[in-house]
Amino acid sequence: MDPVRNPYAPGAGQRPPELAGRDRELQQFEVVLERVARGRPERSMIITGLRGVGKTVLLNAFRSMAIQRLWGTGKIEARPDQSIRRPLASALHMAVRELAPRHRAPDRIEGFLGVLKAFAQAGEEPAGGRAKARAHRWQPGIDVPASRGRADSGDLEIDLTELFVDAASVATDVGVGIALFVDEMQDIPADDVSALCAACHELSQIGGPLIVVGAGLPHLPAVLSASKSYSERLFRYARIDRLDRESADHALMAPAEREQVTFTPEALDALYGAADGYPYFVQAYAKVVWDVAPDTPITADDIKVAAPEAESELAVGFFGSRYERATPAERDYMRAMAMLGDDPVPTAAVAEELGRKPSSLSPARDGLIKKGLIYSAERGLVAFTVPHFGKFLRSQPA
After folding, report:
1. DSSP for 225-256, written as a single string
2. 129 to each of 120, 123, 137, 249, 265, how far by Cα in Å?
3. 179 forms bridges with which residues in the sheet?
4. Mean of pLDDT values over 114-125
5. How far apart are CA 179 and CA 167, in angstroms?
6. Which residues contact 49 (CB under 8 A, 6 or more apart)?
7. pLDDT digits (tens, 9 = 90+) for 168-227
8. Which residue blocks in the chain are alpha helix, DSSP H?
9. Total Cβ atoms within 10 A of residue 397
């Protein structure tokens, strides 16, 4: 069939042609937006799940919903060992710029931007060489003088709380809300997570119309709980997983039918078996199947022909690229995990599989967690962040 008309879109954070199986989460966020609009207290929201289940897609869908309500929005992607001070300043700057044309008092906006600029510049500069030079040149792009005495103490918890309170006050004046979206939230440094929770806690107490919506790996709730004990009550949590059969079929059929293409029931059976309901895999297999199928309807034989090519692409782009980031010791650790099965495995069992003491494997385990390849499902257990990663590793030559 015509590859130009191929509707399927496997990609990192790329919205699929049909956002299937996420109605509950979309409705939950609609409630959050409506409650904030009515001045009612509401918690910020956290989305968790494995890689490839559509967390970033859902985060972007939430942002679109907020924009449709004329909210100010900004988004960042957290990175390990990088403070969120400057990225959050840029995101909040973007959000307030969206509100500025509707604000009746330009001086009020300028006053907040002065506080925002001071906040952005208050953090410690990275030490040494080029990093120090880059930090010295960095400017937040705000054309007002930095204010003094507000959100500029250098203590992120104090500064971020004051900044969020001021931003919420601006949003209240305009009569809308502000939403900040944080992807890969588990990568925020521990001290910054604590500061972010404290700022959200203050907002929840004063009822300010500013929310933080985070997305991260399954252990994100544990990361938040370790920073502030009240984080369990601070956020509304939504765990997303693979699609059920009905939703996976809908994700396949709805875009195809718009192109006058159908699937046989056997083809849908085969595709669900191959993709296992994971949204990224659904798109990856469907894209290849479309290109190899000679005509409609798409049949189970077309799936058999396309599956090796789809699996080869996944092996290189989805699995292989992550495997290559690991050190030899980390690869040994992951292969041992894979040999023990696809469920979370005890770290002691991994050590036994490798014939090593558990303490000697801590650097490899910690390195893999930092790289986002595994996570600690609970104390003493580890699991892959990528679905079917164990199956991929077992298929590779030793």
Report:
1. HHH-TTHHHHEEEEE--PPPHHHHHHHHHHHH
2. 21, 18, 13, 54, 62
3. 73, 211
4. 85
5. 11
6. 55, 217, 218, 239, 240, 241
7. 999 998 888 999 999 999 999 999 999 999 999 999 888 889 999 999 999 999 999 988
8. 23-37, 55-68, 85-99, 106-121, 129-137, 156-174, 190-206, 220-227, 231-234, 245-257, 265-275, 279-292, 300-313, 321-324, 328-339, 347-354, 362-370, 389-395
9. 3
Decide: 91 and 125 in contact? Cβ < 8 Å: no
Cα(145)–Cα(147) distance, rounded to whole angstroms?
Answer: 6
| Cα–Cα distance measured from residue 387 to residue 209, given in angstroms and rounded to the nearest whole number | 37
The residue type found at 191 is D
Residue with the bigger pLDDT between 124 and 198: it is 198
> What is the CATH class of 326-395?
mainly alpha
Confidence band, pLDDT 50/70/90 cuts, at residue 377: confident
User: In whole angstroms, what is the distance from residue 336 CA to residue 332 CA?
Assistant: 6
> What's 46-83 look like in SS3?
EEECCCCCCHHHHHHHHHHHHHHCCCEEEEEECCCCCC
Residue 125 clears pLDDT 60, i.e. is over it:
no
Residue extents of the structural domains in the chain? 23-239, 244-322, 326-395
> What phi, psi does 127 have (nearest 5°)?
-90, 145
Architecture of domain 23-239: 3-Layer(aba) Sandwich (3.40)
Q: In CATH terms, is domain 244-322 a member of 1.10.8.60?
A: yes
Query: What is the Cα Rg of the chain in Å?
Result: 23
Among all chains, which residue has been given the structure tokens 């009569």? 175
Model confidence, pTM: 0.90
